[in-house]
Amino acid sequence: MGLEFHCVDAFTDTPYQGAPILVFPQADGLVEAQMRRIAREFGYSDTVFLQTADRVNQWHMHLFGSRGTPQPFAGHPLVAAGATLIHSGTLPAVDGETAFKFRLPIGEVDLQVRCESGKVMHSAFRMDCDLAVDAYVPSTADIAAILSLPDGDFIGMSGHVPLNLMGPMSCFIVPLNDTATLRQASFDRAAWARSSATATLPPQLLAIAPAGMQADGTLRLEARLFGLDISAQEDPPIGSAMPALASFMALSEPADPLRFVAIRGSGHGRLSTLEVEARRSGQTVMEVRVGGAVTPIAQGQVMID
What we know:
By secondary structure, this protein is α+β, with helices and mostly antiparallel strands. The chain has 2 domains: 2-126 and 292-303, Diaminopimelate Epimerase, Chain A, domain 1 (Roll), CATH 3.10.310.10; 132-289, Diaminopimelate Epimerase, Chain A, domain 1 (Roll), CATH 3.10.310. The chain contains 7 helices and 16 strands. It has a 16-stranded mixed sheet, with helices on both faces. The mean pLDDT is 90.
């Protein structure tokens, strides 16, 4: 039996940029053990299996890491899987927006895919945001040591200070002065272990820096994700941290909806561009939408016994 797969690059319109994601759009009948074996065999950072749900235009989404470990949520695979449903012909390429839902361990997530002239142009996920600010963070000296920076003078961005966002997708966000500092940063596990971070922080840290403006005046941020489960050689996708980043930015940015662009990889290889829109009530983000381009790279079949 052959099972169709598609390799796509998420959050880019340029082949071999963005985040490479492996998607199986018609995985009905597979059990978790088979999915784990396939994910380990291919070794992608994210492998997605879609199985039809009991309602029209809904799918169960099963997500696995390179070692076959189940993952509860990630942003890049969501937009990749949404676009692949249309790239693969599972759903028709109807001009305008097609809406559907994915069911994940964290709950249901809405997808919208926009087509023009029968071609996928944009894929986005939308979800409710339920994150609270934990004001306690390590000292700037400890944070500088964790990021291998010479001192705490590099930490901070106009109107923003490090904050811990707690909830289903918790993230510790550290604003830095500039992109040069961001690109030099590296995660120091020993410094993390010596600090209060081990007891007070989630396992991932998102460092950000201002990167100018888009042509239309939209704020542009460069971002990198660090953590205990991330090797020093990786520059991992940042999509899962976007709800936390939107909540963080809303604390000092007055616009509603709040819009910004997050880029990843400009100093470290594969470039991803994520368009983020957040709707809010006061300083609290209620809903976040994250989208971008998705580029098909390859397709084929894997044999299932």
